[in-house]
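protien #1 (seq + structre)
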Amino acid sequence: MPHSLYIRMIVAAIVPFMIMMTGCLALYQASQVEQRTARSVAQTLEVIADANHLMRLFMDAETGQRGYALTHDGTYLAPYQRALSAFPRTLRHLHEASNDETQYQRLVQANQLFRQWIKDVATDSIIKTRNDNTELSPIADKASKRLVDDFRTVMGAFIDTEQDALHTRQADSQDAAKRAQHIMVWSILLALASALLTWWPLFRRTRHAISEITQRSQRMVAGDLSQRVALRGRDEFAWMANTFNAMAARLEALVATEKRTSRELAERVNVLVRDRTRDMRARHDLVEALQACRSTQEAQSTLRDQLPTVFANTLGGTLWCLDAHTAAPHRICQWGEDKGDVDGDECLTLNDGGIRDVTLPVAHDAEVCSHLRTAFPGRHLCIPLKGTGGPVGILHLHLASAPDEAGNGDPQAEFAKGAAEDMALSLSNVRLREQLEEASIRDALTGLYNRRFLDDTLMRELARAERQPGPLSVLMLDIDHFKPINDDHGHAFGDRALIEVADLLSDNVRRGDIVCRYGGEEFVIIMPGAGLSAARQRGEHLRQQVAALDIPLDDATPLRVTVSLGLACYPQHGEYAETLLHHADMALYEAKQSGRNRLAIAQD
């Protein structure tokens, strides 16, 4: 077989590729330089911003100290205190970002000036002001001005130095970007030129060869089997032309045989279509029945009723299903000559998820599942029902077809596997629908019932209390000072606190009580049959339990929270859900206004 065309194509592909690779390598190096320069620019900008922030902190501290000295108003000390806490942190950031010894010494000098100002001026002035000593020492005032001016001078020099470095790095970044652009343009131009020079001859040869072969092929398709391709040369197209001519000669000889076999093939196709149509109709009916099911029990009942009919051409079979909350399979239905049961630990199909197609008896029992060892002789299929979330069951069928009849097509086995896939998908969909219905009424964070479930349940319980006269209480709880918990310890800890409180509420209510998350840090407990006195005792018990709850922080220090509660009772505080919730909310507001960590009862 010649290789000249291959070599030319390889060369034509490698040359532009090498040029592009060289350009990409140079472009990569230039981009790395630009990225390093850009990171330096970003770091310098951050250092300048921190330096300006450091100066503002000093100015805020000096302004707050002076305002306090002049007005004796304690609110002026707020910026002073913030500056004292933020100054070391900002200075530490500048120390970490500064690599120059001169800049480092300037930061050390700035820190010394700030500490000296606090020691010599600010502390003394604040103490005198607190002691109602309104006399300001001229010497202290001059010292304060001198220290502030020195601090500004030092930090101004620090910022000027960083800005000079910033201008230099920005210029370097622009130069690197220009170099990258030049490299990219020249690489593209050179690659295009080399591709044009190397691929144009190949294109001409390829176009001529394809045109010749296509024309001859079209004439052969039209019925002229005497067509032959005439291509000269020693490349692959010439070899392809010779092969085409040999194929045409052989095809001409096979036409007669094709005509004889076409009739037999048509008959086999008709039989296959008829069998496939029957199988598809059976699978369609099964799927429609399963799709109409609303629960797993209903789907299993449907399978129990219809599987013997669907697999009526088998000698027997059994279906086992796996429930979401149990690991052991249980038998749903069994028909025909099948017998035995499944042991989840010994079923090979359940363990590895593979289909078992065995003919009994076999030489070694280890090759088959345990439930097949006592089955009737013949061909057996053990098919796993694989759902979207894992295995949902096992289907065992005793087929009527002999092993030697299953070599070409095997419609019975294919139908069984397709039906098993439909059953697995339908069972998974039913389970998913049940899970979604459960998720729609549960709060994702705490696992309690959500607001939607609360509204429906409260209306239902009120209707029941009206039909069977009796009290019903609604207790609304709110975690006190929850926003500072989030602000001081983070939202992750706030979520943990919500979960801890939710678990405590769930563990300390009656079995018939319903705990819901109302929203944010608010909870609502519906107490059917509980009067005002009993509900108040239950609310006080819950309040005490929450107050005694220890929620460990990251450093193992326990944090305690409290709750405020509002109580409303049917029928004295309202006969409708909105009214009861409103009165409970108003009572909760009253508990908050009265000092928190207490229970308030709605006004009649």
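ok now protien #2
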Amino acid sequence: MRWNKAAACLLLTVASLAAPAPPAVAAEPLTEILVFSKTAGFRHGSIPAGIAAIRELGAANGFAVTATEDAGQFTPANLARYDAVVFLSTTGDVLDPAQQTAFESYVENGGGFAGVHAAADTEYDWPWYEDLVGAYFHSHPANQTATVHVEDRGNASTAHLPQNWSRYDEWYNYRTNPRSAAKVLATLDESSYSGGTMGSDHPITWCKNVGSGRAWYTGLGHTDESYAEPLFRRQLLGGIQVASGNRPADCRPESGYTPLFDGTQASLDHWRQAGPGGFTLTDGTISSQGGMGLLWYPVRTFENYSLKLDWMMPGDDNGGVFIGFPDPQGDPWKPVDLGHEIQIDATDADPSRTTGSVYSFAAPDAALRDAALNPPGAWNTYEIGVHGQRVEIWLNGVKVNDYVSNRNIANGYIGVQNDGAGLDISYRNIRVKTDGPPGVDLAHGVRGVASSVEPGSLHLAANATDGDPGTRWGSAYADPQWLRLDLGRRQAITRVRLTWEAAYAKAYQIQTSDTGRAWTTIYATTTGNGGVDDISVAGAGRFLRVLGTQRATQWGYSLIDLNVYGP
């Protein structure tokens, strides 16, 4: 954000700078690469087209290309000349033990590897190479058109691609899934073609860190036509840049994240705009218009979590990611005053108000930030860790900030900013991972009974306990109304969380019972304001009831989720 709030906000001070960090390593120059295409098995007819395409990419992007099938080039002295080595549809056993040792040392000490297509059909008796390439080839069906789902849209090799990319190629099945050791960038939709054997998780492009070096691989590139295809050529260029260290990339394995915005309108519908302006949705990307406002996720608050998202500014623009704030109730300045903004603005003169900063509180490590940052017009990835009052920020996989806040941010909402007209920013692929569930949800899957259901709707009581943020229980438009759960046996209850839809209760009670007839109130409020009510209680019973006595709107009571936890 640009700082233009009222004078009271100027009382914010820089409370801390990032903890000392090791010296930054600047983006590596990309001056020369080696393209290796030796085959000891099947030989792909597209190899000459691939070499020609890489030469053209080099000429257009300022790096020289040496193409060879001579394994004798794999000596320590010769490999040291190159920023990356491309295995272009190599097959079989192509290096002897001394050459393998030289290549291992090259990569482990900072060299780059880019594998294309049959690079996965290479060196089956070399365990280190299996780790490098990520997975060995298993089989393939006939060439056909399939849909590639782009999973990481911040990586230089995939950021330019549509979220779902339909193209013709030879589609490899792999012996193992590389996800546990590599960052998967794109997967195949096996329902879009025949002959896939890996199921719902079929990686086709990925990258990983190997020692001090980096490996990138794509299963695409079987056909001659691939190398004349602009989208694939740009992917290939990005892969070479990532492998060589010329472009920042987060190649750490990623698992366990839940998408909050996955590029679909259905997921965007769960978000809410506070303040002016908003966002438009195109090809899985939301782009700002007007402001200064905030798009926030009202379904639930988060604590002890890692938040990841991709962002892009086309020029000297502005935006930010907000964490740890209470329900803004339509006011985008409440998150400024009560939470924290993780800033996106590479040109602000104040180091505490620039990309990677905790806005007005903690500057990033400037050298690390500058080395990790992709320029305007290119996508970047943030990971923001919030654990209690501690905030950690990674930019494209590099930790650039570590700050302990004195604000109450441990449990709160998250959002993304649209700063104002002409201060353009885009976001995509917003996902979160918590350190673990807050306990076993005793209500999950319990089919509740309700006093009523919204007339003409399918907003049944069971929707409040199905764990799906896209469903809800809605009542008739009258007071009182209740939702009752049978937990199966008497349970100690220490926490109840209610996630309200826009129609919420101003006054309600939480009650327990052993019989379902006589009720004990363990919580009551007459000042409910919607959003998420996360309530510590002390009670016990087989039955639990939420009794609404006063609606806050003309509509009924509307609960997205009802969660019940024991000790």
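Residues 155 and 307 are 17 Å apart (CA to CA).
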